TrEMBL record:
This is alpha-L-fucosidase. It comes from the Bacteria. It comes from Solitalea agri. It holds the Pfam family Alpha_L_fucos. GO terms for molecular function: alpha-L-fucosidase activity. GO terms for biological process: fucose metabolic process; glycoside catabolic process. Residues 30-331 form the Glycoside hydrolase family 29 N-terminal domain. Belongs to the glycosyl hydrolase 29 family.
Amino acid sequence: MKKIILLLGFIGCVNMPGMAQQKINPDTIKHKMQWFADAKLGIFIHWGIYSVNGVDESWSFYNNKISYADYMKQLEGFTASNYNPKQWADLIKETGARYAVITTKHHDGVALWPTKEHHYSVVNNTPAKKDVLNPFYEALDKNGIKRGAYFSLIDWSYPDYPGFLKDSSRYKVANDPQRWQRFQHFFQAQINEINTAYKPDLWWFDGDWEHKADEWQSEKVRSSILSLQPNAIINGRLQGYGDYETPEQNFPVSRPKFNWWELCMTTNNNWGYHPDDINYKTPFEIITIFVDAVSNGGNLLLDIGPKADGTIPDEQVHILKELGKWNKKHEESIFGTIAGLPQGHFYGPSTLSKDSTTVYLFLPGQTTGNIMLKGLDNSIKDIQVVGTSAHLQHKVVGKIS
Ligand code: GLC
């Protein structure tokens, strides 16, 4: 993929319509969201006991593909014996990503940290026998990468959680509000443990669809996180109490109308380690989707699924390294830019420098031929090919009406 940068005095930049943020001060939020808006790329990590047999994370037992007992038997195989958090963090750094989000706990309820709550953790219930979260976050710190914590609100293993399998649940909240209250205390205590011990820069909640905001006590969850970490960013899966939107696997063809958003996407078809899934996207495809997201004002949160021993599958390492190479060469056109031209000016993705004097045009796969940009009301100072020393000529055709 080639990128052309046009250095010109461009008037006006693209402003996206605002997402209504009730009860949240817009100035405070704009300020704290700045690093996220500039970050463009995050790496998502789904690591849990599901990597032992390489089955769907949590959903495999929920959907009755495997019995709950067999699913939980995977606890015995989660060794983390080759886990090298420094290597993980270095690889993430190499991609150019500015933040990483790891599954502290998926819907199966197994915590990656030594939870003090009476519940499953890799520390107490697997041969790994250690906190795998802390060394990872410390390694991220060393590389200047922000700490993200994925946390599933749903906990299908907890005895006081109503949901269990798709065709059977434990109870109904309305019939036993006290039991639900016990769950509220439990999950909020776990959030508090993570917030206190690891101080995530970003919270990535998941599973809010199973209950409403008042049942999760979303407002309380948000304010208790912010009371300790006022600058923490919270994703949109908290029934209306998050800071940004999280389209999953794809986003609309037209520009999403959100202030901040992040596309989360798998490298193959699965979030966790799935050796039978070889349907990997090519680096070209991933870079194209990444550029498309950035061009439309969003970030990409690209997922990997390490094995139970902690090694990252070769195909995923390859993708991350290729993405890193590309980012290194084209850094200026991605990081620290803002969303590109509105539709109609250019048949492809674009970004703008923050001062809107440079427009970056992306030409996936094109190495020869003409490039057309419509409706320019500025004089063009220079045209360069990013990452090379090449300069291009231009010709003005017609007039703006
Ligand atoms: C969905 C799935 C979950 C996955 C998540 C990542 O919400 O429930 O398994 O972790 O997407 O975005």
